[in-house]
């Protein structure tokens, strides 16, 4: 997941929270994704995590004392593509809201023109305080992006809203901010994901093995290129990607209704969901008991989401096949009137349901493109590489 981050300079501001140790993991992940990472710490943060830790992880500049740094803070602020304050204590948030420059973190934020992400971490009562909420609203009003906090176990041992967001969430927020001027900026795209569930009775359903990973990757890749992304998802254990609007559904009919509604004003629909082809003709109102030696279900066709989605936007489908991959995919391409279709063999161990990788063929009416084994996010980026040139050029704003 490097597209938006690779080659960028991230200035990571770390403040005096018990969650400061998580910032080292964030810095490490950013470096692995190809970013240059410089770190500025408050004196309190250095009590929790020694500067040497960040120096070893990033091989970049690490500054605590703003007086010893001379003009370093200005240079850091100038070369930053994004400034991330994680964790951000209530004290630091107050300083940022007041425009103070009392330490290296607040000073760097004040001096930068780069987008700023603020990731709060504190006791739930401190976070709920009207002063903290007012300060966060001030930062939002100035264009800063607030990430979290999350619900969970706090340093006091109590449960509440105040935990620093998970590293993956913060990384998603960084990619979202860095990608806002990408080649999908100003476009609305709708992506479907997951496997629909058609109820048999209150405890059973007809479903499939789809994990939703491919659809979520397509949504993330579109977000990282600046799109406004709506993710219509059947049940999935995956977290909602930062900056993506989730529309949860369960049945094929619900997905059809959501897609029809959300495609109004959209430029692209990518149907990566595994929609059930059949549903029980009737749903039992109570749990069916195990009494008879056999059980017969009468099934009927589910709605055809692609056929009913509407017109006026690009349509991209997926064909998960177990045999005759290209022939079946091409038939679906023609029958559904698709602009592109992505075909994959779900019987392959490295590209089936639930895997983190995929080996696909992208087809249009003129030919096909075979991709090697890639991560699902990389497949998604290659797919958007094919979609973007098909979109009408946007008019420049005057």
Task: Describe it.
The chain is of the alpha/beta class and 398 residues long. The protein folds into two domains: 9-178, Flavin prenyltransferase-like (Rossmann fold, 3-Layer(aba) Sandwich); 188-390, CoaB-like (Rossmann fold), CATH 3.40.50. The protein is built from 14 helices and 22 strands. Strands 13-12-9-14-17-18-20-21 form an eight-stranded mixed sheet, sandwiched between helices. The protein has a six-stranded parallel sheet with strand order 3-2-1-4-5-6, with helices on both faces. Strand 17 (314-321), helix 13 (325-336) and strand 18 (340-345) form a beta-alpha-beta unit. The two termini are 34 Å apart.
| Oligomerization | single chain
End-to-end distance: 34 Å
User: What is the level 1 CATH name of the largest domain?
Assistant: Alpha Beta
Number of domains: 2
Strand content: 15-25%
CATH A-level architecture of the largest domain: 3-Layer(aba) Sandwich
Q: Mean pLDDT, as a whole number?
A: 90
Low-confidence stretches: none
Q: How are the strands of the largest sheet arranged?
A: 13-12-9-14-17-18-20-21
Structural class by SSE content: alpha/beta
CATH homology superfamily name of the largest domain = CoaB-like
Summary tags:
2 domains; 24% strand; 22 strands; eight-stranded mixed sheet; alpha/beta; six-stranded parallel sheet; 398 residues; Rossmann fold
